[in-house]
């Protein structure tokens, strides 16, 4: 309560989120309240309470969050798809856990995890906005204390092994719903791949915008679905290039036929020079526009240090995007889009045999 009142008193925000490979605790305050923000973030991270009563309260909160996720088909499908694609690999597991795992988790396990993982050599402190670097360093030294000053050398960023065991599979959750939701995709190399920006251009041209192949063919030309897009998630060991669509069950087969045709066409013939230029422009604009607020800049700084061990400037990234050629994109398409797909389906379908043949053929 004291922390909540202190943050409310200055009109700020103190929160946290967990991604597949990192957890972030952050504060958003006026520049004049930076000392308070550093103090509170340090207190939460280093001295977080793990009292028995607190654990039980938070357990109930997380179970409610899991139930809320399960009630949202798109959110539930996202976790189902990564599990279908990556199996028992850590990125195939939902960040939030399962109702079963959360229900049996003990206070001792949480304390042990905190002691092992919340150590200075694993931390990155990033800030953006109305902040002075030297002043921030002084505040970090003051509030994180000797745990940072005399800590071991920072843990090097994970480069990944590039190996994910097992094969992608097809998962079906039968649910009485108005729509069928589907995600299908392929494993890709991880974020350290030399062609990762060509892969980003491919993703954008496939389904990253209003002019993308999938959006035009599935929605604009045929009106088969309202929501259709592609996504690209890159991790240390691997990545996922996926397509999502939601449609009426009676249109599911047509959506899969058109989607399969688009993917096959791009794998065989590639994208055009014009599509490549539009996709590169979209990536450049999205990157720059996304950094108009200080929270996005803070997040980018932190992830850059965690993932690469150094700051990667906006200019560096823009140069990488600009250097991508249509020939490189099409080589990536030929290399990746012929791989075995993984897929997850949520909707009113009784069995996998009742699913469209095009989908079952892509999963193999």
Automatic annotation (TrEMBL):
Q: Member of which family?
A: Belongs to the peptidase M16 family.
| Domain Peptidase M16 N-terminal span(s) in chain numbering | 3-97
The question of whether 4Fe-4S is a record keyword is answered with no
Q: Does the keyword Transmembrane apply?
A: no
Q: Which organism is it from?
A: Mycobacterium tuberculosis
The protein here is known as Zinc protease
Q: Cite the Gene3D superfamilies for this sequence.
A: Metalloenzyme, LuxS/M16 peptidase-like (3.30.830.10)
InterPro entries reported in the protein's UniProt record: Metalloenz_LuxS/M16, MPP/UQCRC_Complex, Pept_M16_N, Peptidase_M16_C
Q: Which cofactor does it need?
A: Zn(2+)
Highest taxon of source: Bacteria
The UniProt record lists the Peptidase M16 C-terminal domain at 105-280
Q: Which GO terms describe its molecular function?
A: metal ion binding; metallopeptidase activity
Q: Which one GO biological process term can you cite for this protein?
A: proteolysis
Q: Kindly state which keywords UniProt assigns to this record, in alphabetical order.
A: Hydrolase, Metal-binding, Metalloprotease, Protease, Zinc
Q: Where is the signal peptide?
A: none
